[in-house]
């Protein structure tokens, strides 16, 4: 009986969560749904495909616990409508740069936000953008390969402790597999967005990415990690 109640309730609970999920700096999934860019049927198909762990009662019989897992990339894939990844503009004067295996942008402290008086912590979202200090757009969803988007997100998130492991790259496990042995580490200089989700990086750091076709490929493949405050990742 209790399991049936939870089975009936969970789609509504998950839908409420997904509708509030931030897609980019200005829109939630609910906003996109209201604009007709996706249908409720498409959203519900993702909800019903959630992996379920059977519910159980707490030892004191006061709570029922259930867990449902939805890969966010299944939601992300709904919004990747392009067929091939676009390329950021090649700089007019490229600079010498190494070929890296991943891109890490460190933005785990309060940053000055473009157009605001006070600094703020950046928040995670499904489709963040990367800007440089001249407000050139360096990375956005159309630069992400939609085929790869079925497997992973265009940007991963982690806390600072995840990039200071006792390994040559400072990474372990899934992050090491994603970002490789020689990731480019960049410290964000600011943030941007109605709700700040987008890091701003120094123009010289942007050129280190854009001056190499290999490094641009890292953007296309989503080999990008944002390091944010643990407070914002909870």
Short descriptors:
alpha/beta, 4-stranded parallel beta sheet, globular, 234 residues, 4-stranded mixed beta sheet, 2 domains
Provide structural commentary.
- With 234 residues, this protein is α/β, with parallel strands linked by helices.
- It has 2 domains: 69 residues, no CATH class; 132 residues, no CATH class.
- Helices cover 28% and strands 19% of the residues.
- The chain has 8 helices and 10 strands.
- The strands form 3 sheets. A 4-stranded parallel β-sheet has the order 6-10-3-7.
- A hairpin with a 6-residue loop joins strand 1 and strand 2.
- Helix 1 crosses helix 3.
- The longest helix has 19 residues.
Secondary structure blueprint with pairings:
Elements: H1 2-20, H2 29-34, H3 40-48, E1 51-57, E2 64-69, H4 72-76, E3 102-107, E4 130-132, E5 137-139, E6 156-158, H5 173-179, E7 183-187, E8 190-192, E9 198-201, H6 203-210, H7 213-220, E10 224-228, H8 230-233
Helix pairs in contact: 1-3
Quick take:
This protein is α/β, with parallel strands linked by helices and 234 residues long.
Along the chain, the helix and strand elements come as: HHHEEHEEEEHEEEHHEH
Distance between the termini: 32 Å
**Number of self-contained structural domains:** 2
How many DSSP helices? 8
